[in-house]
Each structure stands twice: as structure tokens, then as C-alpha cells.
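Dear colleagues,

For the upcoming journal club I promised to circulate an example of a predicted protein-ligand complex. I picked one with zinc ion because it came up in last month's discussion. The inputs are reproduced below in full, followed by the predicted structure.
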Amino acid sequence: MRLSRVVGPALPRALRRTTAGVAALAAAGLLATVAPSALAAPSAPAPALAAPDLPLANVKAHLSQFQSIASANGGNRAHGRPGYKASIDYVKGKLDAAGFTTTVQQFTSGGATGYNLIADWPGGDTTKTLMAGAHLDSVSSGPGVNDNGSGSAGVLETALAVSRAQLKPAKHLRFAWWGAEELGMVGSRHYVNNLPSTERSKVSGYLNFDMIGSPNPGYFVYDDDPTIEKTFKDYYAGLNVPTEIETDGDGRSDHAPFKNVGIPVGGLFSGAERAKSSAQAQKWGGTAGQAFDRCYHSSCDTTSNVNDTALDRNSDAIAHAVWTLATDTPVPPGDVYENTTDVAIPDNGAAVTSTVDVTGRTGNAPAALKVDVDIRHTWRGDVVVDLLAPDGTAYRLKNSSGNDSADNVIASYTVNASAETANGAWKLRVQDVASQDTGYINSWKLTF
Ligand code: DTR
Ligand code: CA
Ligand code: ZN
Ligand code: ZN
């Protein structure tokens, strides 16, 4: 079967197998061009350079600085206030000392001067520039250690790790700390709007990190560019940490201006004001029914408002993504087998199934088989979800959880399917096991 990207009508709507082709990767500017000398052999891909494990203590030291800056400047680091400019000066000082070429871009918002900090790592192919950024401003009501000192510190420590490694990536690396995000992504919009279109086309991708250390954390991956998304998901699969796609992030942070001009985007998020469900607490730990960050936009968003494990994992994931997307042949998005036919789920009734036929593969399925489900169902606690391998072996993806009253199961699971042959009819089995509330399978897909 000719491999092709999602081509809509060319394939039966219900069943699509897609592989983002080389053209797609090139179009997204995510194909690394590695100098011939770096190749082990002309036909062998450049060896993947493993990203370093960022020392959590270093990341937390940046948070302590942000806290001290806020404490010394009226309790915040908000746009137009002295605490914000002091934050810019701190980050810039670290980067200048580490050999970056830094630029402070000024703009005006609400009658006050705002600042973006841009830091370029010398070298790399500037026609393929990978960017990573975070907003550095807080709200005026607090120091903004999680929102968004955490993202700022993770990006800063990644940049400092690039310097420590004296990395020579295929792509050019650019890091950014945005002003006035809390006023509506003002700084990042100013940057993108003032970037000439010739320069915009050179940005191969923008990675955004806004709240990555929430005290009651979730592990959310932006569901935008598939290659960037897969890079993050593979990282977490390696840690055996389940992730969910971030479904309400569109327009809510600094990736939006980049996405709006067609630049591939991705990112990570550990949650804000929404409550963690019981199903999420089962998979991630923490407290069900409590906000991911109950100090969101509050004065209590201090250094004690951070979960170290989430901050550590997400900071390391930033480094992994930068090393992978800028220094190596990018991870191909994989072969996708999808079924988008709606299947009604009877209330408190028999299980229903939706099938994808996997063909043309050899051997067994992978140890990290990705299963993305999109089930629309009110009171999702009613719903039990299994993956059935071609031989009928069942892999439980989601248990029922009576008090999970949230709607819809839109989630990504990783299954160790290495004992199963790859080819055959794989099924998603869904059953509603409690009366009232109904729904349907909207779509699901396997990525090999
Ligand atoms: N708006 C961001 C926090 C935020 C809320 N939902 C998302 C989703 C994805 C990224 C960020 C956010 C702020 O208050 O800075
Ligand atoms: Ca670490
Ligand atoms: Zn905020
Ligand atoms: Zn934020």
C-alpha cells in the first residue's frame, strides 16, 4: 500500500493509514541536515545524541531567584513592574555568561514598556531555526513561580545545558522569554508580527512551556504538530508515564501566535485551574477533585507551589525535545492506522467495538504502541475501554470510575504490545457500565 499522508477523500474516510512522508517532514523543516563528517556512514543516520539530565537543583535555583526578585519588588514580576525587568536581567545575565547572543526586544502595552528576551546559540543552519520559549511575566497578584517561572526556568536550564555541552546542532537554536503573556500573549504576538515573512519561514518549530511544575500535576502534551507531539510522547513512554493531549490550550499561551502563521508548534503543560479527575489521579497520583494548581494566578504561587517530580521530568523533556529536533534526524511520526466511523455506545449495555486493519507490517507490534482514543461521552466514569489485539488479547486502557463526572475520553495510551503480531484486526472495545449518560466512539488510532 502506498504510504501517504492523510489525503482525505483518496482513502476511505473510515479507515486511513498515514505516514507523514519525507516531504511533510521537510515542509515542517524538521529534517535535520547533518554535516557529512558527523555521519557514521553515508547511509547510517546520525547517531542520536542523548540529551543531558538537567539537574533539578539548577532549575529550582532559578525559581528561587524569581521568588527573591518578586519579594524584592512588590510581590510580583508582572508586565510594567520592576520585578519583570529584574527577571529579564537575571535570565539575560546567565545567557550572556554562557555564550549566547542575546537581544532585548521592547514593546508597549497598557502604557508600559514590555520586554522580550531572545537568545541565539551561535551556529547551526539558520534557515532551519528551532525555537523554545516561555513567558517570563507573572500576574500582578503574585510571584508566578509555577506560572510561569517553571517554564522559564526549564527553558533557561536547557539553554545553559546546550552551552555546557557546546552543542553543534544541525539546526540553529533560538530561545525566548516573553513579556506580557498574561495580558494576552502580547510579547510573543509582537515578536511574530514583527518577524519578516522571510524570517518566519526559517522557524522550523516553536516549543512552548507554560506551567510545567504544577503542585497537583498532570502530564499534558500539546496536540499540534505530530512530530513534535511524538517527540514528547516518546520521551514519556520511555519513563512509563502516561500523557494526555492538551485539548484546551489552543489560544491560551505563546504558541498561538506562531501557530497562527503556520509554524509547527508543540509543548508541555502540567495543569492550571481545572480539577484533576479520579481517573487522572489513578494514573498520575495526586488529589482527585483538586485543581492541578490551586494557586493559579494567586499570591500563593510561590516556590512552595511546585511539584519537584513534574518540574524535573518536564525540564528533562524540554532538553530531550531540543536535542532530538535540532541535532538528529527527527523521529518519524510513525505509521498511523485510524478509524473515524462513529459507533454508538449503548447506555449500561453491551460492549461495542471499532476495528482497524493493520497490514503490510512484519513481526510483532512495538513495546510502546501508541493508542489515541476520542470517545465523546457525558460522565466518562461510566466507560470502560480496552484494546483487543488480533488474537483477542485484551489490554485495559481505562477502568470505570463512578465519580469521574467529566465528559469525554480524549486520551493517549502506551501499550506494551510486543507479544502481539502487528498485522491483523485490532479493535477498540468500549462499554458503558452504568445507567444514564451515553455517547459514541468518535475516532481512534494506532501509531506504530
Ligand atoms: N493561560 C496560561 C495558563 C494556561 C491555561 N491553560 C493552558 C493550556 C496550555 C498552556 C497554558 C495554559 C497562563 O495563565 O499563563
Ligand atoms: Ca532531571
Ligand atoms: Zn497565567
Ligand atoms: Zn502562564
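Two points we might discuss: The chain has two domains: 20-38+332-447, 47-326. Residues 217 and 270 are 5 Å apart (CA to CA).

See you all on Thursday,
B. R.
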